[in-house]
Amino acid sequence: MKDLNKIYKLLLNQYGKQNWWPTTLEKDIHPTYHGKKLDDSMRFEIVVGAILTQNTSWKNVEKAIIELNKNKILTINGILKNKVQKLEKTIKSAGYYRQKAERLKIIAKFFKENPFSKLKKLQTEKLREILLNIKGIGPETADSILLYAFEKPVFVIDAYTKRMCHYLGICSADLDYNEIQKLFMKNLKPDAKLFNEYHALIVEHSKHCYSKKPYCDELLK
DNA sequence: CGCCAGGGCCTCA
DNA sequence: TGAGGCCATGGC
């Protein structure tokens, strides 16, 4: 069995750097993050994307984010000022739009009351706990926010990661979120840049190998 | 037409 | 605590 560091090297070699969090920079509509230092508006956009992409393809999320930006709703105050019905209409393409509109309201309120500058000073574990107590934020969304918006070395586990690990014989199919996360974090250097790329590479690789059955992974098996 | 997409909440044992 | 139902649009 290949170890997790080896798998990373294979994926990086195959697909190259992913430079997440992804944006539609070619459309020149919202800010580009590539190689830039994150500011708070960028961090918030990442949080919004993390909510919208729950069980949803990024393509559909991208449309919703563009619509939010066009309507000047892609900010904490924008989300707070607009009616939930307006939010629902704007993010419709992302699916589950009623739930997600409500969730955006809740997280906007949270980040209004708790600025990034304050939250950044908290211990990662403490911040994770706080995020998990927000309605609409589960383990994957919390960890995506920690890793991509706060740049904390937290490994994000998603359905693809579980599928891939099970297929490769790295873990059993029913291993729970925290256990499989530990598996990655114990075997890798705690480096936010590494975790950022690794998770993105797993998603990219899985779109090729783990989207439709029967799964077939010539690269890693 | 059916399946899937970068999940999470609620309910009910 | 864990399995199952539910949420919903768009691509293929």
Descriptive terms for the model:
single chain; 221 residues; mainly alpha; 12 helices; DNA-binding
What summary fits the major beta sheet? none
Question: Helix count?
Answer: 12
> How far is the first residue's CA from the last residue's CA?
8 Å
User: What structural category do the secondary elements indicate?
Assistant: mainly alpha
| Rounded Rg | 17 Å
Q: Globular, elongated, flat, extended or rod-shaped: what is the shape?
A: globular
Order of helices and strands: HHHHHHHHHHHH
The amount of beta strand, in percent, is: under 5%
Tell how many strands the DSSP assignment holds: 0
The average pLDDT score comes to 93
Determine the fraction of residues in helical runs and give it as a percent range.
55-70%
Descriptive overview:
There is one protein chain. This protein has 221 residues and is mainly α. The protein has helices at residues 4-15, 40-52, 58-70, 76-81, 84-90, 97-113, 116-119, 124-132, 139-149, 159-167, 177-187, 192-209. The termini are close together. It binds a DNA duplex (13 and 12 nucleotides) through residues 49-50, 53-61, 63, 92-100, 103, 135-141, 144, 156, 158-161, 176, 199-200, 202-203, 206-207, 211-212.
Short description:
With 221 residues, the protein is an all-alpha fold. Helices cover 59% and strands 0% of the residues.
